[in-house]
Amino acid sequence: YYWKSQEEFKVKYIKARIAEVTSDGRQVIVKGEDTLVKRPITIPFDMVVHAIGMDPNVDNMTIAAVFDVGLHSHGFIARKDTYGTMGATTRPGVFVAGAAIGPETIDDSIAQGHAAAMSALAAARGGVARAAE
């Protein structure tokens, strides 16, 4: 995907230390340092995705063994193949969310954390968890 996005869609990737992200009303202006060439940058973009490269936790094999849950082929904690119980792993009663299951945005990680917590509450109560009214 990395190479295809650059060649086909003209996506630019810059390894940088970002100091400031602002807008001029039309574009996003990024100021910081290009860490590969050690120079300051100020670049306008249509869109900015602030992300990090991510590898699985080096302890995932140990965590998987301790909790008796599976790992998927990339080394992240495997989720149960269902949408009925959010955050469920391959072992009943063990739930997972966010970066433990793979690269995720902060917003998605938070939402998954809430869903996993509700699933854990439901499992502890032996039924369905409901939000307080």
Topology, element by element:
Elements: H1 2-9, E1 16-23, E2 28-34, E3 39-45, H2 60-67, H3 106-125
Antiparallel strand pairs: 1-2, 2-3
Question: Can you give me a brief rundown of this structure?
Answer:
The protein has 133 residues and is of the alpha+beta class.
Give a verbal description of the structure:
By secondary structure, the chain is an alpha+beta fold. The protein folds into two domains: 2-45, no CATH class; 60-125, no CATH class. Helix content is 27%, strand content 17%. The protein contains three helices and three strands; from the N terminus they run αβββαα. It has a three-stranded antiparallel β-sheet, with no helix packed on it. The longest helix is centred in the C-terminal third of the chain and has 20 residues, at 106-125. It is elongated. The protein starts with a helix and ends in an 8-residue tail after the last helix. The mean pLDDT is 87.
User: In the residues, how many domains can be counted?
Assistant: 2
Rg, alpha carbons:
20 Å
Mean pLDDT: 87
Strand content: 15-25%
Unreliable stretches (pLDDT < 50, length at least 5) are: none
Number of helices: 3
Identify the strand order in the major beta sheet: 1-2-3
**Got a strand count?**
3
Overall form:
elongated
The profile of the biggest β sheet is: 3 strands, antiparallel
Instruction: Briefly note the structural class of the backbone.
Output: alpha+beta
- Terminal CA distance reads 45 Å
N-to-C SSE series?
HEEEHH
Helix content: 25-40%
